[in-house]
Every structure is written in structure tokens, then in C-alpha cells.
Amino acid sequence: MASGQQQPSKSELDEKARQGETVVPSGTGGKTVEAQQNLAQGRSRGGQTRKEQLGSEGYQEMGRKGGRSSQSGGGAVRQGSKDDPEDGLDVDESTM
Fold first, then answer.
1. Which DSSP category does 13 fall into?
2. pLDDT, tens digit, for every residue of 26-76?
């Protein structure tokens, strides 16, 4: 390298990863260098697959809208129901 710095060894990078530091771009969450490389590769591949599914124009539009597609009404908010146990918003307070 021109700057005179040596690249850190794999064991040094593994130690940093175990401490929670990201040593590979987009590798957040991996506890080893290999895990971070696999995560980064998977994220990249997932984005490419989504781009192929939507087409370049649809992919760009999705990014502008924060993930909402124009077909969903743009600002549709999920409505809870009493039958949905995962939705804690509509709780029948008379049974409490």
C-alpha cells in the first residue's frame, strides 16, 4: 500500500467482528469476517433480485416512496382487527 499501512490480519478482523464492529461494508451483524462477507453478498443479491422483479423504473420509484408501491394507494395504513392477536391496538378492554 502507498500509505505505508498494513492490512489487518484475519484474526484481528475476526476479533473486531466479535466485538460487534463492522469490518466488511454492509456486513452488519456478522460475528466473523466470513459471516459479514456472506451477509453483505446476500444483501447485494437480494437488491439485485428485487430490481429484476420490478424493473429499473419500478425499483427507483420504490426507493422514492419508501417501499410503498403506487398500487397500494400510497398512504394506506394497516387496519387492525379484533381477530388479529398480533395487533395490540384493538383490545377489548371490557375483558381486562
1. H
2. 888 888 899 989 999 988 888 888 888 888 788 778 777 765 555 555 554
CA distance linking residue 71 with residue 54, whole number of Å: 13
Domain residue spans of the chain: 10-69
- Three-state DSSP at 55 gives helix
DSSP, res 86:
T
Do the beta carbons of residue 45 and residue 26 sit within 8 Å?
Answer: no
Which amino acid belongs to residue 77? V
Residue with the three cell numbers 428485487? 50
> Which of residues 7 and 83 earns the better pLDDT score?
7
Cα maximum dimension of the chain: 72
3-state secondary structure the chain: CCCCCCCCCHHHHHHHHHCCCCCCCCCCCCCCHHHHHHHHHHHHHHHHHHHHHHHHHHHHHHHHCCCCCHHHCCCCCCCCCCCCCCCCCCCCHHHC
